[in-house]
Specification:
Strand order of the largest sheet: 4-5-6-8-10
Radius of gyration: 29 Å
CATH architecture of the largest domain: Alpha-Beta Complex
Order of helices and strands: HHHHHHHEHHHHEEHHHHHEEEEHEEHE
Mean pLDDT: 87
Helix content: 40-55%
Largest sheet: 5 strands, mixed
Strand content: 5-15%
Distance between the termini: 66 Å
CATH class of the largest domain: Alpha Beta
Structural class: alpha/beta
Shape: elongated
Low-confidence stretches: none
Number of domains: 2
Length: 412
């Protein structure tokens, strides 16, 4: 078991961490303040001039709608509140680094319904990197994507969660993507400490770092992938995280940005990562289709139809067709429902489905797979094997796809 001294070493030695100034979170403590920020962005789209008079007008409007307290001192507090919101928007790529115009993403967010806000935030966080033009020169030693790094850690650490203490004491100290395994090991060792020893380590966190860590975990927890409750950052959608990591990591490259380049990249939607929610839903839909496929493969209707195909093979596929094997196995643990030898000496693999509804491509995929796997296993050329999809009914959209991919269709 690791010692307290060893676990404290990274924290005590590091002068740099994912420090986020107060301006990064434009309200007290919880995500209920996001409507506040959205209303601010909406008002920015309507302003005529970027001057102090316009700043006051926007904040007066926020106060009239209950987004600001009535006790504010107009001379000082108004300017601070305005600046905090502007800085938050700049750091998320909603406002250009100059602070005088909205980016494409900012314009979109200002007009977007509340259901899309978490997705917009996540799109920006995926591309958000250290270092960048919104950070001081002290951060030039950093070479990582904070949100992607956190997703990587939390998806692999035991329990799929990290506490605020673990985030502040170790995760937020990381300076490059390669530290992931070290961070996961540190978290494991920290959790193995006694309550007293953990409190000893925890006591070294100063308020500034604690505040900065909480602001970031709140922001990460607002995304569709994660949730932040009771000072614990946990997974809300594991499928989505798998998709984000699988899609993002091959395409993200750390860059040295000028402010203009940062605005052009960070302030625009990237088709690689947008939209993510529909894509995540597709993943879940495919899982559901797979489960339905497995279930119907073992049904009595499926068995009866398969027996019908065997008994009527010559009527379906031509006189002289011979059954080679029912349940034709591959060493990859796949199996074709049926394999026949045709009168012309070619082979035929058959995928049997009870019915094939619109957009259900499972049977089509299976048929294509068996054709090419059988060719390899039997040492045949691809043109020596045909493949077929047999069902009581096949939707026309699937028939059209079968035609494109050279899969014969039989409705019986």
């Amino acid at each position: 078991m690791a010692s307290v001294k060893k676990l404290l070493a990274p924290f005590l030695k590091s002068n740099t961490y994912w420090y986020i100034p107060r301006a990064f979170w434009p309200y007290a403590s919880e995500p209920e303040g996001i409507p506040n920020f959205h209303e601010f962005m909406r008002l920015l789209t309507k302003r005529q001039k970027w001057d102090r008079k316009g700043d006051i007008k926007i904040l007066e409007s926020l106060r009239s709608k209950g987004f600001l307290p009535d006790t504010l001192d107009q001379a000082e507090d108004y300017h601070v509140h305005y600046r905090n919101r502007i800085n938050f928007a700049k750091k998320l790529g909603f406002i250009k680094p100059s602070g005088r115009a909205l980016t494409n993403v900012g314009e979109f967010f200002a007009k977007a319904p509340e259901t899309r806000w978490p997705e917009i935030f996540e799109h920006q966080l995926i591309k958000w990197q250290f270092t960048n033009p919104t950070l001081p020169k002290d951060y030039d030693v950093f070479r990582l994507f904070p949100y992607i790094f956190t997703l990587s850690v939390i998806s692999e650490v035991e329990g799929n969660f990290i506490t605020l203490d673990e985030f502040v004491l170790r995760v937020s100290l990381s300076q490059n993507q390669a530290e992931k395994d070290e961070v996961i090991e540190w978290i494991s060792n920290f959790r193995s400490l006694s309550d007293t020893d953990r409190e000893t380590v925890r006591s070294r966190i100063n308020l500034v770092r604690q505040y900065a860590g909480r602001m970031l975990t709140l922001l990460f927890g607002y995304t569709p992938s994660l949730g932040f409750h009771d000072n614990i950052l946990t997974i809300s959608d594991l499928d989505r995280i798998a998709f984000v990591l699988g899609r993002a990591q091959p395409h993200l490259t750390l860059r040295t940005y000028t402010p203009n380049a940062w605005d052009k990249y960070f302030g625009s939607f990237d088709s690689t990562f947008w939209p993510l929610i529909p894509r995540a839903r597709v993943i879940k839909q495919r899982k559901r289709q797979y489960k339905r496929y497995v279930k119907r493969e073992g049904s009595s209707e499926h068995s009866a139809l398969k027996r019908y195909v065997i008994d009527n093979a010559e009527a379906l596929f031509g006189s002289g067709t011979k059954l080679f094997q029912e349940e034709y196995y591959f060493p990859s643990s796949d199996k074709a429902n049926l394999a026949f030898i045709l009168p012309d000496g070619k082979w035929l693999t058959v995928e049997v489905e009870v019915d094939v509804p619109p957009n259900d491509i499972v049977g089509l995929l299976q048929a294509i797979k068996y054709k090419y796997m059988c060719a390899v296993q039997e040492r045949l050329k691809f043109d020596q094997i045909r493949t077929a999809l047999v069902a009581h009914s096949v939707d026309q959209t699937i028939k059209d796809m079968c035609s494109i991919y050279d899969v014969d269709v039989y409705e019986v």
